[in-house]
Amino acid sequence: MKSTGEILVIGGGIISLAIALELKRQGASVTIVCRDFTEAATHAAAGMLAPQAERIPPSPLLDLCLRSRALYANWTQKLEELTGLETGYWACGILAPAYQENLALKADNLESVWLDRATIHQSQPGLGSDVIGGWWFPEDAQVDNRLLAKALWVAVQELGVEIQTGVTVEKIVQNGDRVTHLQTSAGTWQADHYILATGAWSQTLLPIPVTPKKGQMLSVQMLPESMPLQTVLYGSDSYLVPRQDGRIIIGATSEDVGFTRGNTPLGIQRLLSAAIRLYPALQNDPIQEFWWGFRPATPDELPILGASPYRNLTLATGHYRNGILLAPITGVTIANLVLHQKFDPLLDAFHWSRFNP
């Protein structure tokens, strides 16, 4: 039996890394065990920090997202100082163009500005002729999810977190109200406390309703002579995320197809059609890359955070479309709960028991 010390975090995505980072900063002994770091949904995201542009209604989820967005600038700055690596954090704002058919979608918050047809086309040249206006969300931002994942991976190791990759957790073994150990492909592992952060694969270890939602994406490289895309475009059928290196990330499908891998002609065709309608200026830019990933979705599309049925197992999964955005606040709230039994009342809405009334 391998003893990992105080806390063992199961999972290799941004949520597990953010939790491990905060635990270690507060002095805990932490080990991460994961099957494949590159498999996490983290690597397949676009990195939008967009609680307003997504029109999340007033709710505990919006409160959680806004709190996390407020942490981002300082959080990424500290990561960059620790590692010397870029995270691609960019407080660029987000523009949500509207077509006639979705004009009824309101943006009822104080952090948005309505732009009429003339103003939005002047603000961002190259928009499609069907765009009749849109909302500007100056507080929303973006981060380069792949750069962020790399920086977190380096940061936790710089701080002394042990990472065990290539290890598949096969079973969480319980006795009464406690987890006694993990059965893994590398033998038995034991710790004082366990944190489940395995995203779309969580249901393989616990009977909680987290299922995969496949998302297909692609990127193009803006040509030097192309009309420059200056901000994120959050459309009704697609979004375009410009990176500072000239790439544009185009996403994303949302498919209930289990763990079916690969890009499909239909999925990519729908993305390209929606993207070209939104921003025709990109139609001649060369395609750079296709990819896909599996978002962890719950029936109500809210994460599962906090206590579990077992005293020494904490849950941090089911973040669905907001894993990148919610990483900082998840790290802080889960670390405070595990180390200090400091419960943030906001976590009430995300307790696993809502699925077992």
Written description of the protein model:
- The longest helix has 24 residues, at 60-83.
- Helix 1 (14-25) packs parallel to helix 4, helix 1 runs parallel beside helix 6 (323-340) and helix 2 (60-83) crosses helix 4 (145-159).
- Helix content is 25%, strand content 27%.
- It folds into 2 domains: 2-85 and 145-209 and 299-355, FAD/NAD(P)-binding domain (3-Layer(bba) Sandwich), CATH 3.50.50; 94-138 and 211-297, D-Amino Acid Oxidase, Chain A, domain 2 (2-Layer Sandwich), CATH 3.30.9.
- The chain is of the alpha/beta class and 357 residues long.
- The strands form 4 sheets. An 8-stranded mixed sheet has the order 6-7-5-15-16-17-14-18. Strands 9-3-2-13-20-19 form a 6-stranded mixed sheet, with helices on one face. A 4-stranded mixed sheet has the order 1-12-11-10, with no helix packed on it.
- It catalyses: glycine + O2 + H2O = glyoxylate + H2O2 + NH4(+).
- It comes from Phormidesmis priestleyi ULC007.
- Pathway: Cofactor biosynthesis; thiamine diphosphate biosynthesis.
- Its EC number is 1.4.3.19.
Salient structural properties:
357 residues; alpha/beta; FAD/NAD(P)-binding domain; D-Amino Acid Oxidase, Chain A, domain 2; 2 domains; eight-stranded mixed β-sheet; six-stranded mixed β-sheet; 20 strands; EC 1.4.3.19; FAD/NAD-bd_sf; glycine oxidase
Summarize the structure in short.
It is built from six helices and 20 strands. With 357 residues, the protein is of the alpha/beta class. It folds into two domains: 2-85 and 145-209 and 299-355, 3-Layer(bba) Sandwich (FAD/NAD(P)-binding domain); 94-138 and 211-297, D-Amino Acid Oxidase, Chain A, domain 2 (2-Layer Sandwich), CATH 3.30.9.10.
